Amino acid sequence: QAESVRGGVSSRFIFPALSQCKSSPASKMSSSVIVLGSSGNVGSALIKTLATQFPALKVLAGVRDPTSAKAAPLKQGNVTLVPADLSNPATLAAAIPKNVDAVFVNTPGDADRTQLAINGITAAKTAQAKHVVLVSVLNTDKAGAIFGKQFTPIEAAAKASGVPYTLLRLPIFIDNNWANLESIKGQGKIYGPAKPDAKFTPIAVSDVAQAAATILANPGPHANKTYRLTAPAFSHTELAAAFSAATGKQVDYVQVPYDAAKQAFLGLGFPEWQVDGILELYHDIDDGASYYTFSGDFQAITGKAPTTIEQWTAQVGAAFK
After folding, report:
1. What's the pTM?
2. How far apart are the first and last CA of the chain?
């Protein structure tokens, strides 16, 4: 988990597999797609899913430096690495093929990510891409939300671009629990500021990749739609119980004050705006925010049920013992 959370979508704490949708007569399977931001958690999972489940699809993996060690694992089968930097529009123009079937813009973890994502949308429009898929956050519609204010202009740019679009609004990721590895292994504890019994709806990164790959491979049915990718809701008490079952030892959730949580995040090197955004998400959990409800959109897209917390902890439990 080498990255850091950049405001709820990708991360070292990652706050932020696949069946095809049935084709309608008007839909057309893609022959080529490009993923901008392929080396992050969502991007790399998406590339893996496209490579393993859509081997006939030509996939371009856009990365800042295709020769880097970080990019090397992305090159597999039907995947070609190309230089593409959202902060350098010239590289996007060179990377995105004319009339490409679909472009995935993986909103980067950066204070300037609003403009960076808009650069990706603009480049897709200039290349006359047939579809663009973007990640967003669940609280985009919440007035004054820190992360929402960053993503509202991104969503607006996608809708104004004239390119058929799909918006994937994401919650906190289940995979964030890797940040609890040492405390679970050493103490049998999970620490966090949220109320123990307040429910929230994290999604697995692999499920985000599965939904995105399904859409990229067959964009037509998803044109101009906004999805909320959520899993069945659970509380931190239920999270601890799932880890107890998966590890065969007692794991408890310990609520800590918000001020202490903020200092812990700042101590890890996160910028204050980002820490405040993360803690705002936890306050929304405590307040029972309406967006923390199970949407069913993942199953509507893929035909599969999303990963539950019991399934995820069972898959990774051995590492937490």
Report:
1. 0.90
2. 18
